[in-house]
């Protein structure tokens, strides 16, 4: 049964990530953030998802959350440029 859930996440993760990006492009930032959060439940620490969710939080003026997600992307790579950019943007506001 364990392998089966791994198989599901293999397909579910990209679907949730794509849904998040699509909802973001439609201006549905809250729903997009939820999609990225669901994807992160499957792959905790995924940088692309964290940045996607941080962008949603930015649009919703949730600057503390932007900062949290940005700092999470920088945990093991302090020079991750997208993470640095989101962090700078959050601190600016």
From TrEMBL:
SUPFAM superfamilies with a match to the protein in the record: TPR-like (SSF48452)
Keyword Cytoplasm: yes
Chief localization: cytoplasm
Protein localization: Cytoplasm, Cytoskeleton, Cilium axoneme
Key words of the record: Cell projection, Cytoplasm, Cytoskeleton, Repeat, TPR repeat
Superkingdom of this protein's organism: Eukaryota
InterPro entries according to UniProt: ODAD4 (IPR040111), TPR-like_helical_dom_sf (IPR011990), TPR_rpt (IPR019734)
Cellular component GO terms, alphabetical: axoneme
TPR repeats (start-end): 13-46
Protein name per UniProt: Outer dynein arm-docking complex subunit 4
Organism: Iconisemion striatum
